[in-house]
């Protein structure tokens, strides 16, 4: 999963301490446009607006949200980043928003359990990833292996006190305000899976250009399937200028999902759409997890996508309660393929 860093907030430097300004500049250029396909202008502006609001409030609690978002700077991922435990929890939501996956769940949650992102500290580098399995330690351990090529040490997940989850090496003393979470699937798996569906190109809201009525029906069906049938689906605000419903913002605090129309149909023939077309019949075959994973890897290889070269990232989530394997294709800096189903 991609490593994400964050843009600076649009705010007068005079209202911030020098330490705040330094940290703000450190976070400035960490969100590159996705390498697979740039975000449509409407979506990018929307996500940046959310980021700016969160960053400003994290630096200056009484500061108003910025009037207009800036353009992310070119990232410099070559230089090391210093450990910033004092700021990490506050900025989880902003990071996830601009990754292209998990649009806004990072801060529209009532508790850490309802979050759909995980902050992993990997060798003193802060890596924010979309949750995959609902087990934050397992997700961060997998990311550690990808980033370093070595197995992760013992890890511990913490509620960071800001509605998010941070995973640290067990040998590391957590910052003040962190509360250790129980081992295993401590995140709400239904929330995680709903977010994956919202960003999905195979059969979710990114799979076609949907109007409000169709998207509302689809979203309500998916909420019901995941045991969230009492949620309300709201239409996009009148300020949205897109022609297609392509995402949504769930708010766990009041059980609502607000649809958003932020762009038009995806360009025909791009690798994301071609891969999704290959994955749809695989998902419909209702095969076990291992068999589905083999076919998904073969489909990606036919398009020249290599897992080793990080052309995509595949995560297998065993789910003994599932009858079929669900296939999600999310995009955010790379192509995330999440398979959830029975082992046999």
Structure, briefly:
The chain has helices spanning 18-26, 41-59, 92-98, 136-148, 189-198, 212-225, 271-284, 289-302, and strands at residues 117-122, 125-130, 155-159, 165-169, 179-180, 232-234, 244-251, 256-263, 312-318, 326-331, 335-341. By secondary structure, it is an alpha/beta fold.
Could you name the key traits of this structure?
single chain; 344 residues; alpha/beta; five-stranded mixed beta sheet; 18% strand
Describe the structure.
With 344 residues, the protein is of the alpha/beta class. The chain has three domains: 13-180, no CATH class; 207-262, no CATH class; 271-341, no CATH class. It is built from eight helices and eleven strands. It has helices at residues 18-26, 41-59, 92-98, 136-148, 189-198, 212-225, 271-284, 289-302, and strands at 117-122, 125-130, 155-159, 165-169, 179-180, 232-234, 244-251, 256-263, 312-318, 326-331, 335-341. The strands form three sheets. Strands 2-1-4-3-5 form a five-stranded mixed β-sheet, sandwiched between helices. A hairpin with a 5-residue loop joins strand 3 and strand 4. Helix 7 runs antiparallel to helix 8 (289-302). The longest helix has 19 residues, at 41-59. It is globular. The relative contact order is 0.12.
């Amino acid at each position: 999963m991609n490593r994400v860093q964050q843009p600076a907030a649009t705010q007068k430097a005079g209202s911030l301490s020098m330490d705040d300004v330094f940290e703000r500049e450190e976070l400035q250029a960490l969100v590159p446009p996705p390498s697979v396909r740039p975000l449509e202008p409407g979506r990018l502006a929307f996500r940046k607006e959310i980021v700016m609001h969160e960053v400003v409030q994290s630096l200056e609690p009484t500061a108003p949200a910025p009037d207009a978002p800036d353009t992310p700077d070119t990232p410099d991922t070559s230089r090391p980043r210093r450990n910033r435990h004092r700021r990490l929890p506050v900025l989880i939501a902003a990071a996830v928003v601009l990754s292209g996956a998990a649009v806004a769940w990072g801060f529209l949650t009532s508790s850490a359990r309802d979050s759909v992102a995980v902050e992993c500290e990997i060798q003193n580098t802060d890596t924010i990833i979309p949750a995959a399995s609902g087990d934050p330690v397992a997700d961060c351990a997998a990311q550690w292996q990808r980033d370093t090529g070595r197995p992760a040490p013992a890890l511990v997940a913490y509620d960071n006190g800001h509605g998010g989850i941070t995973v640290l090496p067990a040998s590391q003393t957590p910052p003040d305000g962190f509360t250790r979470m129980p081992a295993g699937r401590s995140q709400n798996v239904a929330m995680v899976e709903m977010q994956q569906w919202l960003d999905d190109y195979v059969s979710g809201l990114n799979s076609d250009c949907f109007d409000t009525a169709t998207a509302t029906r689809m979203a309500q069906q998916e909420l019901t399937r995941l045991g969230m049938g009492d949620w309300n689906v709201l239409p996009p605000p009148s300020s949205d200028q897109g022609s297609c419903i392509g995402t949504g913002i769930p708010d766990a605090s009041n059980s609502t999902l607000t649809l958003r129309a932020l762009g038009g149909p995806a360009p025909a023939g791009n690798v994301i759409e071609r891969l999704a077309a290959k994955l749809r019949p695989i998902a419909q075959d209702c095969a076990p997890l291992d068999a589905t994973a083999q076919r998904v890897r073969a489909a990606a290889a036919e398009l020249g996508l290599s897992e080793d070269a990080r052309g995509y990232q595949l995560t297998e989530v065993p789910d003994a309660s599932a009858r079929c394997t669900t296939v999600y294709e999310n995009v955010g800096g790379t192509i995330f393929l999440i398979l959830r189903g029975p082992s046999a």
